[in-house]
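Batch manifest, entry 17 of 40.
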Amino acid sequence: MSDAPLLEVSDLHKGFAGPRPGLFRKRAVVRAVDGVSFDIRRGEVLSLVGESGSGKSTVGRTVLRLARPDAGRIRFGGEDITTLSRDALRPFRRRMQLVFQDPYASLNPKMSVEAIVGAPIDIHEPGTPPAERRRRVEQALSLVGLLPGHAARYPHEFSGGQRQRLGIARALITRPELLIADEPVSALDVSVQAQVVNLLLELKERLGLTILFISHDLAVVGHISDRIAVMYLGRLVEVAPTRALFAAPRHPYTEALLSAVPIPDPTLRRERIVLTGDVPSPLNPPSGCRFRTRCRYALPACAAEIPALREVAPGHLKACIRDDLALASPLGLAA
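Output type: structure tokens
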């Protein structure tokens, strides 16, 4: 793994217009991503985790420039792509690919597998000879564990796990450097989830991929990640190497998420931290620390200002003013 970042995201902001409160009143802004910064080294898997509505998928789509950022900077391979036009972005598109969450909705049922998987070649490499296109489609299918003969079939002839493999094959056919996997296993059965995660790990090693893995399931990301970034209501609250985060979480939100991870041993018992209340609305987030309204360690000072994401151990960052907390791993792991 190279130490050089392939992707650098600095102070990223992205908002969406909310409902109009009145005929002559200005629309409120949903602050989906509010000052997010991170980087991913070449060959690394960084997982972005958090509850639904935390802004994870918006980060992924904005990084790919499928959504235009309101502020901040995105650098890919050392080049600033934040404000590039559609035409200027085209050379970067083939180097950054997306695996969608829903393997059913993301594949056109009227198109054959060959047409679906080969579509990126048609877009990025027009004029490719049909025989070469067919060869690359069959090669991509073989990479993800499917047969070359499957190219003539249609999506309805495949299971959910096989459809997700088709989505991965489509993403890989342009030979990308960065793969953004947006909840790629959440719609699959547990046994199939493990197969897809293992496939991504195998492809990472085989092709030298860099992966941004987006998920709400810490049990899944613990298996695939080199580092984990925890997101809550549009902001990062903790970033750490996987083992360090699982062994010694530094933020109360991470502690609560870890307490919900199943332990495959029925004889073990541990405290389940149940967060009270709903996630606040991004239309009107709480002052100061956004997690304070659900945090069992909150102090009045937590409402004063937004805590900065700062390093508290080598490679371990947190956004919390409570340095006096000694949070134990709910999983009982050692660092």
